[in-house]
Amino acid sequence: YLGKGCERVISLENYSYYLVFDIETTGLDYENDAIIEFGGVLIEATKSGLVVVDTLEYFVKTDKTIPQAILDLTHIRLSDVQAGISQSALAECLKKYHRDDILWVAYNAQFDISFINTLCKNHCPNVRFKPELLDLMSVYKDYYDYPHKLDDALNQFGITSEGPHRAIYDAKASYLLMQALHRKHGVTPYINVIGYHPKYGLSGVRFSHVRYLPHPYQKQSLIHQLSKKIPRF
After folding, report:
1. Is this prediction's pTM over 0.70?
2. Residue 229: helix, strand or coil by DSSP?
C-alpha cells in the first residue's frame, strides 16, 4: 500500500525516526473533546533511506458523546470505540515517541498535536511533550491553490486513501504525501513551523520551539518569511 520506491526517499533532517500520524475525535475542541482513533506510521531513517518499521492503529474509549455526524463521516462504529484501549493507555503507548530524534508529521498538525498535548497533560503530567513537528498542510498551502483539505492535497499527487477520514488510512496516505512534497518542493524549512491565516487566527496549543507565522492564501508567502532567517536545504 505504501508504494514502490518509498524506501528511496532521503531523510528530511537529522532525525532517527518519523511518526506520520492522524487522529479522529468527538469534535473540534481539543480541551473538551476526545480522541477516538489514533493511526500512525513509524519510519526509520536508515543509510539507504526511509523504511517503514511499524504501524500504530488504536480505537480509543471515551465517555464523551460521539455525534452521529462523526460516525457517518468516519464510518467508525460505536462498538469499535467501546472495544478500544483507554485514553490513559493511548497516552502510555505514545510516551516512547516523546523524543528529540523523532519528527511528528501530520496534515493540519496544529489540530492533531493539540489533542495529543491535552491527552499527555491529562494522563502523563510528568512526561515532557515537546514534539519536533512537520505540518504538511503548511507546506501544501504554500504551493497550491485553495481548497487545502487533505483530500485536495492527495488528489494533487494522485494519492488514494483506503478510507478517508479514518486515522490509520489517512496517516498512510500522509506518508506518501510527505514524500511527494519533499521530492517536489523540499519540506525541511517547514520543520517546527505552523502557518495560519491571519483572518482566522490560530487556535490550539503553542510550543516555544515552533514558529507560528501568518500564512494567507498567497503562494510561497511562508517560504519567503522563512528564507529571511532559515536557509533552504
Report:
1. yes
2. coil
CA triple 169-174-178, angle to 5 deg: 160
Helix segments in 63-194, DSSP class H: 68-74, 78-82, 87-95, 109-123, 136-141, 150-156, 167-184
User: Cβ atoms within 10 A of the Cβ of 157, count?
Assistant: 16
pLDDT in tens, 143-159: 999 999 999 999 999 99
Please, are residues 132 and 104 in contact by the beta-carbon 8 Å criterion?
Answer: yes
Report pLDDT digits (tens) over 50-69.
Answer: 899 999 999 999 999 999 99
Instruction: Round to the nearest angstrom and report the end-to-end CA distance of the chain.
Output: 29
CA distances (Å), origin 106, targets 82, 113, 141, 154, 158:
26, 8, 14, 13, 18
Rounded distance, CA 38 to CA 63, Å? 17
